[in-house]
Design goal:
This protein has about 350 residues and is α/β, with parallel strands linked by helices. The protein folds into 2 domains: about 190 residues, Rossmann fold (3-Layer(aba) Sandwich); about 150 residues, Rossmann fold (3-Layer(aba) Sandwich), CATH 3.40.50.2000. Helices cover about 45% and strands about 15% of the residues. The chain is built from 15 helices and 13 strands. The strands form 2 sheets. The chain has a 7-stranded parallel beta sheet, sandwiched between helices. α10 links the parallel β9 and β10. It is globular, with a radius of gyration of 21 Å.
Amino acid sequence: MNLGLFLSIGESFKDLKDKGQLKRLVNYNIKKYAQAFDKVYIFSYLDEKEYSLPKNCILVPNKRNLNRFLYSVLLPFLNVKQISDCDVLRGMQITGAIPAAIAKIFFKKDFIFNYGYDYAKLAKIEKKNIQSLLYKFIEFPIITLSSQVIVTSKEVKNHLNKKYGPKKLAMIQNGVDTILFRKFKKKYDKKLTILFIGRLEIQKNLANLLYALKNIKDSKAIFVGEGSQKNNFLKLAQELNIDLEVKNAISYEKIPKEFTKADIFVLPSLIEGNPKILLEAMSCQMAVLGSDVLGIREIISDGKNGLLCYTDTKSIEEKLRKLQNSQLRTKLGANARKFILQNYQINNLLTKEVNLLLKLAK
C-alpha cells in the first residue's frame, strides 16, 4: 500500500528547513509513514532535490515552479502517475487538503487531513481578511469530501462537530519526543529569563508580554523565531528599556538547549491550535505561562502544571510576578513533565494516525 503526503500550500522541504521544522517532520511523521507503507510520495511546492529520506520515500517536486495557488489545484493532474499509485492521501493542514480533495473528485482517492486550529479566525486576527474569507469558503467542501479529519483539541472538535457530526472527526493530539525533550541542567542567570519560541506575529501577542515585563525588575526576554513583527518588537523593547534578545529560528533538536537558558516559557497568544512548542517546554520540565485561549487552556491546568493568564498586559504581569517564586516554578515544571508523559507520547499518537490511514487504504 502506498501513501501520498501533501505539504501545506506553498511549503517545501527548503521552507521547512529554514523554519527549523524539517527534521521534526522527517524524523517522526515521515519515518513512521515509511514503516507502515510500501511507498510514500511527498508532494512539494518547490522544484527541489531529495533530502535525506527513507529509501521508500519519494519527493515529488513542482518541476514547473508554478504559483503555489495554481499548483495546489493542478498538482493531481500534473502528477497523475504518482497519484494513481497512491492508496490513500494525507493533507497537512486544511490547505494541504486542497489537492487531496481534487484527487478525491477526479481519481476517487480517500484522504484525511489535520484541522489544527480556527484558520479563518487566525487570519482575521492577523488582518488577512481575504485569506480569512477563503478559509471559510474551502472548509465545507474539503471536510465534506474527506474521509476523516484529525483534530488536535477538544474545542476544535466541538466546533466542527456542530457542523459536520462526530463520525468525520478523529481526535489525535500533537505528540512530543519525551527522550529528546527532557529536563537538562539550567544555565543560571541573575536575571529572571523569559523565553518565547515561535512566529513573531500579531497572533502571538508579544507586544503585551513586553509591556508586562516593563515592571518586572531584573528580568530579560529571549524571542526565538522569524516573522513580520520582529523589528517592531525590537523597537518596542528599546522604548520600554527591556533587555530583549531576538534569535533566528532554530531546528527542533536544538530547542531543548534553548530551554536551559530560561526560567519561564511564555505563550501569551490570542489563539492557538495544539502548540507543539508548549508541549515541548512542559516535557523539558519548564514552568510555563500561557493565555487562557483556545488551544492553550486544554493543556495548562492553572496552578497545577502551569499558569494561565488573560491576554492583557496586567494579567500577564500578575502571573509573571507569581512565577518569580522559584519553588512554584519547580513544582509546576515537575507536574508539567508528568502530564506530558501521561498524555503526549509521540509514538503512541503517530501510531493512532497511521492505523487510521491504513484502515482507509484497504
